[in-house]
């Protein structure tokens, strides 16, 4: 029996695309969701263990970990996807924003990884994986998303530490996307400006991350690294 893969924040967009792709390959899944999108009903009907988790406090994180450990004794992989793309322009309470960004992007992955290392070791697969979804802005910062970028940089650093600590059984890597999919509310002006930020100039869609996750899951020799998925944005 294959050990399940855990995906956090799988109710929509990239996380949901990852869940659907892995499910299509008969991979057992456990997902977290905050909002009960219709997609969660569909995943549940398809046999996915869906755990409600709004990671807004240490207690909520601990409660999720307790539920997870009641659900499985092993894990093939953990994909830390849950994220909030919030910014200083939307939040005058910078202290609260900073705490929220650090919690969802660094504290949640840190605490789950610390608590679940043995579950990953228990997998019957040759390797287990932790995959952190970071962001291109780890490389250069982001003047309009300062706390967000710093929190993703913290997550990037966790990749290196956990890779060293959990080798050789567990590989730990980051995927650092730039634009993958726009949000529904993004204006035509924002879309045009954003597409010009990379030298490939396109909105690739979630499949690009699905492919990158598959590459990492099938690798036997990549760990402690970041795979950039950014259309050559660094060359602009
Ligand atoms: N989309 C893109 O172009 C890019 C994405 N990335 C990264 O890729 C990953 C996936 O991106 P995308 O699909 O756009 O992500 P979303 O912005 O759609 O968020 C993913 C999920 O995270 C959940 N979430 C947010 N806050 C919390 C919380 N406090 N507790 C629990 N769950 C929470 C959301 O729940 P709910 O459904 O309730 O809102 C949502 O379903 C993210 O880590 C993102 O930072 C990086 C660069 C570009
Ligand atoms: N949690 C999220 N993080 C990010 C998103 C998003 O929609 N949700 N979007 C981006 C942008 O696409 C950016 O990469 C390009 O403007 C970044 N992070």
From TrEMBL:
The keyword Methyltransferase appears for this protein: no
Entry annotated with the keyword Ribonucleoprotein: no
Catalyses which reaction(s): (6S)-5,6,7,8-tetrahydrofolate + NADP(+) = 7,8-dihydrofolate + NADPH + H(+); 7,8-dihydromonapterin + NADPH + H(+) = 5,6,7,8-tetrahydromonapterin + NADP(+)
Keyword line: NADP, One-carbon metabolism, Oxidoreductase
Residue ranges of coiled coil: none
Domain of life: Bacteria
SUPFAM superfamilies attached to this UniProt entry: NAD(P)-binding Rossmann-fold domains
Gene3D superfamilies, alphabetized: NAD(P)-binding Rossmann-like Domain
This enzyme's EC code(s): 1.5.1.3, 1.5.1.50
Pfam families with a match to the protein in the record: adh_short_C2 (PF13561)
Molecular function terms, GO-annotated: dihydrofolate reductase activity
One BP term from GO: one-carbon metabolic process
Class in the EC hierarchy, top level: oxidoreductase
Family in the record: Belongs to the short-chain dehydrogenases/reductases (SDR) family. FolM subfamily.
Record's function text: Catalyzes the reduction of dihydromonapterin to tetrahydromonapterin. Also has lower activity with dihydrofolate.
PANTHER family assigned: DIHYDROMONAPTERIN REDUCTASE, OXIDOREDUCTASE, SHORT-CHAIN DEHYDROGENASE/REDUCTASE FAMILY (AFU_ORTHOLOGUE AFUA_5G02870)
Protein name in the entry: Dihydromonapterin reductase
Organism annotation: Pseudoalteromonas ulvae
């Amino acid at each position: 029996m294959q050990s399940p893969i855990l995906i956090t924040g799988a109710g929509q967009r990239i996380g949901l695309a990852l869940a659907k792709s892995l499910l299509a390959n008969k991979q057992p899944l456990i997902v977290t969701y905050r909002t009960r999108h219709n997609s969660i009903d569909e995943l549940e009907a398809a046999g996915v263990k869906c755990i409600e988790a709004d990671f807004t406090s240490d207690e909520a994180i601990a409660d999720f970990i307790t539920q997870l450990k009641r659900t499985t004794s092993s894990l093939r992989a953990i994909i830390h996807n849950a994220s909030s793309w919030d910014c200083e322009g939307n939040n005058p309470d910078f202290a609260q924003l900073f705490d929220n960004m650090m919690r969802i992007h660094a504290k949640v992955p840190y605490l789950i990884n610390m608590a679940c290392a043995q579950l990953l070791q228990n997998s019957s697969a040759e390797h287990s994986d932790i995959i952190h979804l970071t962001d291109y802005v780890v490389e250069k910062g982001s003047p309009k998303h300062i706390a967000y970028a710093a929190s993703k940089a913290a997550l990037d650093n966790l990749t290196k530490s956990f890779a060293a600590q959990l080798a050789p059984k567990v590989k730990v890597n980051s995927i650092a996307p730039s634009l993958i999919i726009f949000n529904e509310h993004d204006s035509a002006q924002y879309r045009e400006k954003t597409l010009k930020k990379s030298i490939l100039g396109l909105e690739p869609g979630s499949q690009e991350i699905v492919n990158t996750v598959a590459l990492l899951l099938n690798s036997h020799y990549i760990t402690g690294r970041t795979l950039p998925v950014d259309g050559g944005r660094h060359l602009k």
